[in-house]
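Put briefly, the fold is written as integer tokens. The lines below illustrate.
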Amino acid sequence: MLDGFVSTNSTVYSAGPPKLVKGSLDYQVAAPHFRSDGSEFLGRYRLIIRSDVARCVYGFTQAPVSARVTVTSANGSSQVATTSVTESSGWITLSADNFTFSNPVIKVVLQQQKLKNLVPYIQGDPAAKQSFSKALDITLSRSSPRTIVDDWRRTIKPALTNTKLITPEKATELDKRIRVVEMTLEPTVAAQTIRWIIKTAITGEVGVKTAPLGQIPIEEGSSLIFGKKQNASR
């Protein structure tokens, strides 16, 4: 029995079905960026999978599912592509069109709206709402720095904002915290300095004397913005 199939216009593609990687069905494709006439070669991708197989893979019930299709370039940036998701007659069809090459990864994440079932209980009980907020902060703080940035932007933030379990102000606050984590992973002087600040929390005269070679010392009355010292307004 056929469980599903993939089709694409790329000249090179992964062998076998998409791989399940941290909840995402990933499929690698590759082709020249330009056609022979100099125009961009725009990609097409289709994943058609039996509904019961998809639910089995994710451990979902027979309740309706939704999905998100994204195209990630080799440098990790997200591409703008035309995507669609439909479910009909026992099959789920997911597509991405008009993306560019050379070797992007198409990512498909299936979701079931389990979170929505909890929203009325969390919102209707102040104690439960407070516990949820505290649990969210703890979960994010304990997550791997190397995965939390992508997880936050692709799945966690959309789920929480769409269900209104966090306010726009809370989302902005968490965005800033996630951005700090992201910057600590960037191989720049600013990131190195931020890592040093977080690790040592040394300021003032001691900070000036003990700042690592090549790092910007943190002085009292100064603020750090992307590796540059600026006098704090008084």
